[in-house]
Amino acid sequence: MARMRDAGVTPTMQRLAILEFLEGTKSHPTADKVYVEVRKTCPTIARATVYNTLEALTKAGTILQLTVDPSAARYDADLGPHVHFRCRLCGEVYDIDVKQENCLGDLVKGHRVEAVRTYAFGVCASCRKKGRDDA
Amino acid sequence: MARMRDAGVTPTMQRLAILEFLEGTKSHPTADKVYVEVRKTCPTIARATVYNTLEALTKAGTILQLTVDPSAARYDADLGPHVHFRCRLCGEVYDIDVKQENCLGDLVKGHRVEAVRTYAFGVCASCRKKGRDDA
DNA sequence: TTTCGTGCAAAGCATTTGCAAGTAG
DNA sequence: CTACTTGCAAATGCTTTGCACGAAA
């Protein structure tokens, strides 16, 4: 809550519910998943509010918006350096710990680099076990 | 064309037009942009054909599907290791050359890693010059 | 003939927007 | 009072699907 205030985002019940849900999960949920889950503790919340909040928190740097899934944005409250791995069979997203994320300079070709995000793709351990190794 | 055949994608006029357009641009076009542009040389092509082709070529490994833009998939025929930078102000996507892309092992935590993609975000040189540096 | 690719239109989702009502400063 | 937030519904936009036709194996 202090974090939200510091980030310039007015804390409201709805926004706190969203942030707390995100911090309590490692599942990198989509906006719609957040909506469905938060609705359990805050039944009147509107879809638009969820989208607004996720955008506000993303811009404020409080959470990360992942573009690892082409079909829908996913969100992550874990700001530490890590890589996101997406299974091309089941679609699940996993964390992979790394010492440090790929570091470019702060300034490359005149562009100011503010963030670097690394995504990995392949077949996850679970799908491999299921024999769906598929190549 | 040989490349398409090798990849198991039957070459057709429409598919060749799409691949040639992609290879002749560095603009990382969206599917819709591809549709509009290819339509100039192949006026009867349907949107669905463009989407089908882009998906087929992506799966075949002939082109890359980028998820650097949350609002729409972008495509790139340049398979060499490079990072994609997206300006948060104008939305433009630029290439950044790197010696090698972030290398994870082939197998991490039981997941088989088939591809690694790195995206950078910030403000591009052009927007910075326009004084829209904005922070 | 069986399969695959194409073109067209309609449908499906994720996301955004407009607007009225409520709330905080 | 003024600005911001919420909730609802409708719209927008990217992408996919269903179907019929035509070309290729």
Describe this structure in words.
The structure is a homodimer of 135-residue chains. The first copy, chain A, is α+β, with helices and mostly antiparallel strands and 135 residues long. In chain A, the strands form 2 sheets. In chain A, strands 4-3-6-5 form a 4-stranded mixed sheet. The first copy, chain A, has helices at 2-6, 13-23, 31-41, 47-60, 125-129; strands spanning 64-66, 74-76, 82-87, 93-97, 107-108, 111-123. The first copy, chain A, has 5 helices and 6 strands; from the N terminus they run ααααββββββα. The A-B interface holds A 65, 67-70, 73, 83, 85, 87-88, 94, 96, 98, 101-102, 104, 108-125, 128, 133 and B 65, 67-70, 73, 83, 85, 87-88, 94, 96, 98, 101-102, 104, 108-125, 128, 133.
List keywords for this structure.
homodimer; alpha+beta; 5 helices; DNA-binding
Give the % helix of chain A.
25-40%
Mean pLDDT of chain A: 91
| Gyration radius of chain A, rounded | 17 Å
- Extract low-pLDDT stretches of chain A: none
**What sequence of helices (H) and strands (E) makes up the elements of chain A?**
HHHHEEEEEEH
- Bin the strand percentage of chain A: 15-25%
CATH class of the largest domain in chain A: Mainly Alpha
Largest Cβ-defined interface: A-B, 36 and 36 residues
The outline of chain A comes out as globular
What's the helix count of chain A?
5
Question: Order of strands in the sheet with the most strands of chain A?
Answer: 4-3-6-5
Per the CATH scheme, the topology name of the largest domain in chain A is Arc Repressor Mutant, subunit A
* DSSP E strands of chain A, number: 6
List the quaternary state of the chains. homodimer
From the helix content, strand content and strand pairing of chain A, which structural class follows? Answer: alpha+beta
Q: Give the N-terminus to C-terminus distance of chain A in angstroms.
A: 47 Å
Largest sheet of chain A: 4 strands, mixed
CATH superfamily of the largest domain in chain A: Winged helix-like DNA-binding domain superfamily/Winged helix DNA-binding domain
What is the number of domains of chain A? 2
Second-tier CATH architecture of the largest domain in chain A: Orthogonal Bundle
